[in-house]
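User: Some background: our group keeps a shared notebook of sequences we're curious about, and every so often someone picks one and asks for a predicted structure to add to the entry. Today it's my turn. The entry only has the sequence so far, pasted here. Could you supply the structure so I can complete it?
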Amino acid sequence: MHEISLKLDGRTLSGKKVAELRRDGLVPSVVYGGHDEPQSTQSAIVETIKVVNAAGKHSPVTLTIDGKKQLAIIKSIDIDPVKRGILHVAFHAIKQNDVITTDVPIILVGEGESAAEKAGLIVLQAIESLEIKAKPASLPESIELSIANLATTEDKLTIADLTLPEGVEFADVEQDMELVIANVYEPAALEAANEAAAGDATIDTEVESENGEDTPQDTQAEESKPGGKLQDEPKQSNVDANK
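Assistant: Of course. Here's the predicted structure to add to the notebook entry:
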C-alpha cells in the first residue's frame, strides 16, 4: 500500500469563525486519540480533497502535525449538502500495531470478459463492501474478485470466493460465507423485476397520499446536514466546540 500523507497545522479558530478558514482555502479538522484532548487542526483544501479521495474511511493516513508524524484514519467527513465541498474532517489517531476494523470496497474485475456477459447476460453486484480487520500496514485499499468464470444464470459469487490478503481477517468471526456478492441475470427477467418494483412503489405512494400520510419535507434535508442522522463517527462530546 502506498503512503497517503497530509500536513496539518494547529487551529485556533472555532465555531462560526471557521468560515474564515474556508474562505482562505483551508479545511478545519480535528484529531482524536493520542492526546488528552482532541486536537483542532486545519489543512489546505486541495491537498485535503486528494487525501479524502485516496483514503476514504478505510486507508491509514500519515499526518504531519506541527512537524510531528501521526498515523490516523478518517472517521467522518462533513460535506456541504448544496455546494458539496468539504466542511470538516475528523481523524482518529492509531498505532502501527493496532488492529483496525473497517469497511473496504469489493471490486469486481474482468467486466465484459465473462462468458455470461458475452452471451448477453447481466452481472450485478449485490455487496459493495466488506468489514475486515488488520494492522494498518496490512489494510488493503480494496478486495478484488474476478467475474471471469461466470457463465449462466445459475452462477454466482459469494464471500467464500474471496481471497483475503495476508494479515487480513473478516471482522465477524461468524461471517456468513454463503452471502452473495454478485449474481447473473437474464436482461428480460431483470427488467420485469425492476418494473414490478417500480409498480409496487407507485401503489404505496398513492395509498399514502390518499390517507394524508405524506413524508415530512424536512426529513431528508435534516439528515443531509452535518451532524444529522447520516453523520458518521466519532460522536464524542465537544465535537462542535472543536470545529
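Suggested note for the entry: Residues 205-242 have pLDDT under 50 and may be disordered. Residues 5-94 form a domain with the Ribosomal Protein L25; Chain P fold (CATH 2.40.240.10).
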